[in-house]
UniProtKB/TrEMBL annotation:
It comes from Ferruginibacter yonginensis. PANTHER family: FI04487P. The keyword Transferase applies. This is Methionine aminotransferase. NCBIfam families: PRK09082.1. Pfam families: Aminotran_1_2 (PF00155). Transmembrane segments: none annotated. GO terms for molecular function: transaminase activity. Keywords: Aminotransferase, Pyridoxal phosphate, Transferase. Its cofactor is pyridoxal 5'-phosphate.
């Protein structure tokens, strides 16, 4: 007899990012689906990795992350968000933000707990909650603006609510949290036992003069939060899968209990390279304006097509409506665009537990101008 697994994720298929990137490759389509830049990362940074290896930094680094890298991150956080976090007690380097989120959920959740998740939601959140025996209570963001609906959120909080998950700049919409959202979060969490998980991987990818409001800059919110980041997004190297989690000492202590028996530590040479490279503030501070140019370049090109943009204030992404073009479901439209027109996108319906159809697709504009031009040339045939 061959044993069978009783699935812990019986409803899960393959993530939409893999489905669409595989389809793009099969049809030789221009891939504006999965979020990754198609231009070269900074050569100075990749050279620092080679140097670290050549210098012999090839053994385990400290389980919480290379101390000088944690120091550099702590300094950056103090400078940007005014929070004097301890490199020793409050920062852990992780193999990507996805892992950091999973570990944070595992640290805090007990079976039967509820976590409030705003939809559309990045696709790793709900499975991570469910794998930890908890329930994701989904709340739709306001259609069009993708802003938090305060009344719906208040109504969803029950004695079982353990945490609220936020993500700004937001994937897939590019919406960003504003001061009124922070005031609301303050209001609903103060004098409660609620945790916050704040996914801030796109912290520097923010446009139009907006300022990233990090949970790290609000002590009364930070005291109950796990905050996650990804170097892949900051330095155009998503394949590096290196990130970090920041949380107050008592929370981080539990996070590390799990981390030490899972990844234990992260690829070392990259940590040496990042520790040196983080000293160059301009590299991350100028990222938003560089990416804003790409968003605008793409948007101007897309104005020739029948697609209608929804606002994007941050991230790699902009959502476009195809209501003027077709009545198809989003997944069907995304597949047809790939197969017949050679352009790959992500159906926003994939960011809901129970797909919601709004005739919208997510485009990744973090690409070379020539890639964006070629994609729009193809879309003009629609
Ligand atoms: N959160 C969001 C909102 C994302 O878009 C991504 C995508 N990369 C991640 C987390 C995961 O980051 P990492 O690749 O570092 O795991
Ligand atoms: N975060 C990326 C996106 O939203 C994809 C990461 C992944 O493929 N898991 O497209």
């Amino acid at each position: 007899m061959i044993p069978t697994i009783q699935s812990k994720l019986p409803q899960a298929g393959t993530t939409i990012f893999t489905i669409m990137s595989t389809l793009a490759a099969e049809h030789n389509a221009i891939n504006l689906g999965q979020g990754f830049p198609d231009f070269a990362m900074n050569a100075a940074l990749s050279e620092l990795v080679s140097k670290a290896m050549a210098d012999g930094h090839n053994q385990y680094v400290h389980m919480n992350g290379l101390p000088v890298l944690r120091e550099a991150i702590a300094q950056k956080i103090k400078q940007l968000y005014g929070n004097p976090v301890s490199a020793n007690d409050e920062i852990t380097i992780t193999p990507g933000a996805t892992y950091a989120l999973y570990t944070a959920f595992t640290a805090m959740l007990q079976p039967g707990d509820e976590v409030i998740v705003f939809e559309p939601a990045y696709d790793c959140y709900i499975p991570a909650i469910e794998l930890n025996g908890a329930k994701a209570v989904t709340i739709p963001l306001t259609p069009g603006t993708y802003k938090i609906d305060q009344a719906l959120t208040r109504a969803a909080i029950t004695p079982k609510t353990k945490a609220i998950l936020i993500n700004s700049p937001h994937n897939p919409s590019g919406a960003v949290l504003e001061e009124d959202d922070i005031a609301f979060l303050t209001d609903i969490t103060s004098n409660t036992n609620l945790f916050i998980i704040s996914d801030e991987v796109y912290e520097h990818l923010i446009f139009d003069g907006k300022k990233h409001l990090s949970i790290l800059q609000y002590p009364h919110l930070y005291e109950r939060s796990f905050v996650t980041f990804s170097f892949g997004k900051v330095y155009n190297c998503t394949g590096w899968k290196t990130g970090y989690c920041v949380a107050p000492p008592a929370l981080m202590k539990e996070f590390r209990k799990i981390h030490q028996f899972n990844a234990f530590t992260v690829f070392g040479p990259v940590q040496y390279a990042l520790a040196a490279f983080l000293k160059d503030e301009a590299e991350y501070l100028e990222l938003g304006s560089r990416l804003q140019q790409k968003r605008d370049y793409f948007k101007n090109l897309m104005a020739q097509t029948k697609f209608e943009p929804l606002p994007s204030y941050g991230s790699y992404f902009q959502i476009y409506s195809y209501a003027n073009i077709s009545d198809e479901k989003e997944y069907d439209m995304a597949v047809r665009l790939t197969k017949n027109y050679g352009v790959t996108t992500i159906p926003v319906s994939a960011f809901y537990k129970n797909p919601v159809e709004n005739k919208v697709l997510r485009f990744c504009f973090s690409k070379k101008e020539s890639t964006l031009e070629a994609a729009v040339e193809r879309l003009l045939k629609l």
